[in-house]
Write the structure tokens for this entry.
Amino acid sequence: MSKKYKLILLIIFILISFCKKEINQQNKDAEYQVNFIIQRDSFSKNITQSYRTTKSVFEIMLDLKKQNQIDFKYTGEGDNIFITEIHQIQNEGFGKQKKNWLYFVNGELAQKGVSQLIIDNNAEILWCFITWEEKEQCINKNNGGKNDKKY
């Protein structure tokens, strides 16, 4: 390879590296708020946390657990994390009358698992201990289904 091509490749590499650093710096500088809510019958807990980097819902939950803000248990690993218990209240399993923890992001029932859904801007994460049929009541009771971003 000639010196000319090596020089061009080096310049391209430097420009790409510079652009990546600039984008990463912008992401670090941008702060966003996460409002984390847990609800069960008459129990409710609301926590607001600020972040500068993108995080999955599971990573946010781990942060809050380390700060003794929430307590939860889970099974699985990687992309297959499943929340089984929050604040010593376990999922009841399958069945119409069984209550389980469901989570919503910005008023929308989450379509991804907690380790797959990435939060990168202001968001409300809501956990409700409800039956499947009650899911609409949980959304309406909290924010009327207002959305900043669909998930």
Observations:
- Residues 1-30 form one domain.
- The CA atoms of residues 80 and 141 lie 29 Å apart.
- The beta strands are 32-40, 43-51, 55-56, 72-75, 82-86, 89-90, 100-105, 108-109, 118-119, 123-130.
- The longest helix spans residues 3-29.
